[in-house]
Specification:
The protein is an alpha/beta fold. The chain has helices spanning 10-13, 21-31, 46-59, 77-84, 93-105, 155-173, 196-203, 236-254, 266-276, 291-297, 315-321, 326-332, 337-351, 398-418; strands spanning 2-8, 35-42, 62-66, 89-91, 120-122, 126-128, 137-141, 147-151, 185-191, 214-221, 224-231, 258-261, 281-285, 306-311, 355-361, 376-383, 386-393. It has three domains: 2-173, MoaB/Mog-like domain (Molybdenum Cofactor Biosythetic Enzyme, Chain A), CATH 3.40.980.10; 185-261, Alpha-Beta Plaits; 266-418, CinA-like (Maf protein). α3 packs across α4 (77-84) and α9 (266-276) packs parallel to α14. It is elongated, with a radius of gyration of 27 Å.
């Protein structure tokens, strides 16, 4: 089955809100073997919504729309889509009662009058119960193979309705298909510490490495490059086998730059490695301002490995709390291999850890020199009394540099812990 996705909201077009709904819906649909042929975004304009809905229904016949079902004047999706299907809006008395009960359970004496519009339903439409909010989902079907699912734009409500109401209906519509028919499956090999073009050279010629029926997408970001393999036309068993074989090949060619698959988090990988060695980990950060520690503590159970860190932004903190030598600081400057190593040693010693990572750098936009331009970063790892340092000149703006430095600090621990070069 093919379908299309349409997200509605002027805030999405303006970039004020990131459209996560289309991505979440796409993942759910792909896992069920339903191909999203196209996705689009329109503002809160009835004409634009009607035009986009008509075009999508003409192309695939199945459309999922998110957004514009709220109680305010700019929530016009239900009206616009009803007009496309030639349906009038009628007030559903049962829905009114449900809405009133929803507000009553939350301590409101009366329901705001504006919410009454959320009980207006296109004639003949199926109401999809929303257990997480006030705007119900709707299914409009013309009986001739054209249907539109209307879902609220609040992400948790949209995902809940996709799982509870939309996916079972789409699965039922395709239940008569051959169980050995094609599915859409993906595997992602995650890499870091290498740019896209350099990784492309390292991976080399992919003829024969990616079997027929698979595609490979290169997805670069500030923290690394993801290599996403997707099977579009193979039955499930063949797809899984082909994806596994291709993923192993990519991992072998990427070498130490590959750190996991799919949703792997480098911070979790690092914590697992350090835990496996029976050690404790500390951090000392200057230019990243605590971002390394934040990444580590996002992982549940990190306290079993990560003892804490020091944000040593000012040189006096490096001197007083991390024990950096005034002579070393004066001779080499704060952004140097020598200072990074002393920061790592001071963090390990002061926090009672056997492993530590330190970051010092120039995130910009000011502070760079010809010898140490903006983006210069030194990272040092202390590991059971031995030290190793890494030097980078990172591209991007201040936030990019800080994020890249954070990822590289975690990667430095992974490499040292794993014995990688």
């Amino acid at each position: 089955m093919d379908c299309e996705l349409l997200t509605v909201g002027t805030e999405l077009l303006l970039g004020q809100v990131v459209d996560t709904n289309a991505a979440e819906a796409g993942r759910l649909l792909a896992a069920a073997g339903i191909r999203v042929r196209r996705r689009g975004t329109v503002g809160d304009d009835p004409d634009d919504i009607r035009q986009a809905v008509r075009a999508a229904l003409d192309r695939t016949g199945t459309l999922i729309v998110t957004g514009g079902l709220g109680p305010t004047k700019d929530d016009v999706t239900r009206h616009a889509v009803a007009e496309v299907f030639g349906r009038a809006l009628v007030r559903d008395v049962a829905l009114v009662a449900q809405l009133e009960e929803w507000f009553k359970r939350r301590g409101f004496a009366t329901m705001p009058a504006a919410n009454l519009v959320q009980a207006d339903v296109p004639e003949g439409a199926t109401v999809l119960p929303n257990r997480r909010g006030t705007a119900p989902g709707l299914l409009i079907d013309d009986g001739h193979g054209r249907r539109a699912f209307l879902l609220p734009g609040v992400p948790k409500e949209m995902i809940g309705l996709m799982v509870d109401e939309v996916m079972p209906r789409l699965a039922a519509a395709t239940s008569g298909s051959d169980p050995a028919s094609a599915v859409i499956l993906s595997r992602t090999v995650r890499t870091t510490g290498i740019g896209e073009s350099a990784l492309h050279e390292k991976v080399g010629d992919l003829d024969g490495a990616v079997p027929e029926g698979l595609t490979l997408a290169w997805l670069p970001g500030t923290e690394g490059v993801d290599l996403r393999l997707t099977s579009w036309t193979l039955p499930k068993a063949e797809a899984e086998s082909a994806l596994e074989s291709a993923a192993r090949t990519l991992e072998q060619r990427a070498g130490a730059h590959a750190y996991g698959r799919d949703g792997a988090d480098l911070a979790r990988v690092v914590l697992d490695l350090v835990r496996g060695r029976g050690l404790k980990l500390a951090t000392a950060e200057s230019c990243t301002g605590g971002m390394v520690g934040a990444r580590l503590t996002t992982v549940p159970g990190s306290s079993r490995v990560y003892v804490g860190g020091m944000v040593a932004y000012d040189n006096e903190v490096k001197l007083g709390f991390l024990g950096v030598s005034a002579d070393v600081l004066g001779e080499h400057g704060a952004v140097s291999e020598a200072v990074a190593k002393e920061m790592a040693h001071g963090a390990a010693l002061g926090l009672g850890a056997q492993a530590a990572v330190a970051v010092t750098g120039i995130a910009g936009p000011d502070g760079g020199t010809e010898a140490k331009p903006v983006g210069t970063v030194w990272i040092a790892v202390e590991w059971q009394g031995t030290q190793r340092a890494f030097h980078y000149v990172l591209p991007g703006d201040r936030e990019d540099i800080r994020r890249r430095a954070t990822q590289l600090a975690l990667d430095a621990v992974r490499r040292v812990a794993g014995g990688a070069s």
